[in-house]
Amino acid sequence: MSELANEEAYDRWHKASPKKGDPDCPEHPGQVASRDHGCENRWQARWRDQDGHQRSKTFPKNKKSVATAYQRSQRAAVEEGRDPLLHRRQRNSVHVPTIAEYVETFLAEHEVRANTIDGYGSRLRMYVVPHLGERPITEVRRREYKQFITKLRVSGMGNSSRNQVKRALSAMLTAALDDPDLGHLMPGNQVLGISVRVDRRQKARLTWEHVVALAEWIDPAFEMLIWYGALQGLRSMEAVAVRTTDMKCKLKKLEVAEQRQRGRSAPLKTQYSYAVMPMGPFLIERYVSHMERRTAPPSASVLQSRKESGWIPRPEEYDQLVTVTRRGTPLRRNTLSEAFNRAKRKARAHGVMVPESATFRDLRDFMDAVLVASGVPHRDVQTRMRHGTLALTLDTYGFAMEVDWENAPASFEELFGIPAPPGVPDGALTPRSERLGRGTRVTPGGESTARRGRESRQAARRRIRVRKS
């Protein structure tokens, strides 16, 4: 047999050294059929490892070239002093961690944003470890992962949450494949390709009437957050992280430098999220009015209540935040969500039909849509929205809408701090002073009549409590 033939994969269907008198194969004349003739894995790659032991691996009948290439690679590896296909006895000498053990290794070594690691950790420890934690990570197969994800659905977990669990699990298995001690033992990332239905939330189409009503009926301490979302496009945790030093009122600029996660300072979502953006006079006026209320000395009743409850002064760091809770602490996501939903219900009760599905995130989408509909150049909108790509600005967030400028609280330039694009409706050019003169519900001091009356009643109740005390 020639040297080239020796390099080819072994044909299991036919005898390499037939005996004299053996009949020819009826399907392949000139060859003698073996007892394995017709089996699915026809081709066999053969080689000897560094210890001289015979090794082999079979391939399907239509994979002769693949089997031959694999055989040559193994023989070349042995000649070079390496053995990429460890024998089973060598594999057993390697400690294979359980999924529970590798979860901790993965979380300690994986280099991503701290918030991502926290999310991965909570999902892996809460859901994956109780179900699969005792199994060696190299032994769990795709069918078992699929059954696990199905069990999560049966237990009542939503599709979005299941996708997050799957994403954390996939990231861990990918890290295991890259581990030099485990990668050659892994059967691959068995989670890839498992489909989980995606629930796409229908975006709420907000209008200026909705935004003004939300700002009017939300807790006065949180009003600035509505304007940060609708005029600056800040995400919820970016809005609660705005500090007084970020409000560069003289320069008419707002710096976005951090966000708050679980009350603590954290890096922004992406590198494009860091920016210094123009700020209109309307937002500056609302900020000044807000800070007057924020820094006003507490009433006697509040001081007495603090004394009785053993109130502990909050860190000075919190004093720099523009928006805080009534206890003086940073807002968290659930607190803002509850306040937003209460404002939504109050607005609907007073005749402004804010979509029931609206969330704080829709304020950011609203701003994107208003800028695009007003004719602002798309690249400028991308910069203002702090998106990494233009496609994200136009496809994911922007949607066609007719802007109700007659319900806006001020002109385009006063709201966004940039000149109005050519061709915008006259309502977008009407300054706030003229809107006030037309009998709108916004008072010269910047307060809506409903808000002004409500705060007057609250002040009267505080005076009554002081007199009684």
Task: Describe the structure in your own words.
With 469 residues, the chain is mostly helical. It is built from 20 helices and eight strands. It has helices at 3-7, 64-79, 88-92, 99-109, 114-132, 142-154, 159-178, 208-217, 223-232, 236-239, 281-294, 300-309, 316-319, 333-349, 361-373, 378-385, 390-397, 412-416, 432-437, 449-468; strands at residues 10-11, 43-48, 54-59, 247-248, 253-256, 259-261, 264-266, 275-278. The strands form three sheets. A three-stranded antiparallel sheet has the order 1-2-3, covered by helices on one side. Strands 4-5-8 form a three-stranded antiparallel sheet, with no helix packed on it. A two-stranded antiparallel sheet has the order 6-7. The model is unreliable at 1-5, 87-91, 439-446 and 463-469 (pLDDT under 50).
